[in-house]
Amino acid sequence: MRNKNLLFLVIILAFSFSKVSSQEGLPIYSDYLTDNYYLLYPSMAGVSNCTKVRFTGRKQWIDQDLSPNLQTVSVNGRVGDSKSALGAIAFKDENGYHSQTGAYFTYAHHIMFSRSELDIDMLSFGLSAGLIQYKLDESAFLSGGFDPLISGIEQSATDFNLDFGFSYQFLDFYAHGAIKNLLNNDGINFNDQGLSYNNLRTYLFTTGYLFSSYTQNWNYEPSVMLVHKEATKETYVDLNLKVYREMDFGRLWAGLSLRGSYDNVPFLRESGSYEKPGSSFITPMIGVEYDSFVFAYSFNYQSDSIIFNNGGYHQITLGFNLGCRKKRYNCNCPWLK
């Protein structure tokens, strides 16, 4: 029954989001911290004792039309009692007149090195294949008359790409790595000279550790994530801390994420001097797990030398767990439950 539920959910995602779009595939925000590392790392599919279903909505400038917004839905779980797992992600990302929609399907394999599942020592690999549709709506651009550089229609392109990832978990320690957008894509991505670029390859690495109190009612999870984009040479770092409180009904948690971005391409100021842009993001978050249901809220505030507005993103995550097995590992690790 559990396998049928997982297969049914994957099929729903395939048909419900066969026409979705964005600029680099699924954007890398802070939603991975709301109990969903699978959004970034294919190798995390099926790691949990349960089949996980998660919905995420993210929006900036709520009262403005065409403001940046993102919706995702994902499901992942083991195939029976095997070492294999399946997963699927669908998303829609919109920013003004530019949007992208996509769907990824994942296979993951988990290798146990420990003699029993009581003490976890596991290496995982995952591969995601996805279709992404890019759109640029230029139909409203010609209100001032003819322009040879503007088509006046909705441009679209569909690309295929792959993400590869690995994860290693030993007791309360974990490390994840991934290469996103392995293949070159043309899409409708243009630089400021109107020339297309096709290298959207991005490298990610995350590591963290779970510290538990003597009673194990309180758990503390510091982590760090490094991201590097090959074509634009952009690099940023997330420093994260989450605190969990075990309750009779489930779990409460709160966290804080700090992101620093370091760009290597300088921009020209009005004074005539060149400056390398840098930005920082502060993201507080709270969440609750009640029985098999999950709710999380986070707010993202950006500080940047070249942004138009400091208005933050509001993000809500809803989820539920299906077909949970009996607890397998001697670890309070939230990503395993």
3D architecture notes:
Helices cover 4% and strands 52% of the residues. Mean pLDDT is 81; it is low at 4-22 and 191-195. The protein has one helix at residues 2-16; strands at residues 51-60, 69-78, 84-95, 98-112, 121-137, 154-170, 173-180, 202-209, 211-212, 218-229, 235-246, 250-262, 267-268, 274-275, 278-290, 293-304, 313-322. It contains one helix and 17 strands. A 14-stranded antiparallel β-barrel has the order 1-2-3-4-5-6-7-8-10-11-12-15-16-17. The chain has one domain (2-336): Porin, CATH 2.40.160. By secondary structure, the protein is mostly beta strands.
CATH class: Mainly Beta
**CATH topology assignment:** Porin
How do the strands line up in the largest sheet?
1-2-3-4-5-6-7-8-10-11-12-15-16-17
CATH superfamily: monomeric porin ompg
**Assembly state here?**
single chain
CATH architectural category: Beta Barrel
The total number of structural domains is 1
Q: End-to-end span in angstroms?
A: 20 Å
Largest sheet: 14 strands, antiparallel, barrel
Strand % is over 45%
Helix content class: under 10%
Mean pLDDT: 81
Structural class: mainly beta
Query: What is the number of E strands?
Result: 17
Taken from the alpha-carbon principal axes, the silhouette is globular
Pick out its properties.
Porin; 337 residues; two-stranded antiparallel sheet; globular; single chain
Short description:
With 337 residues, the chain is mainly beta.
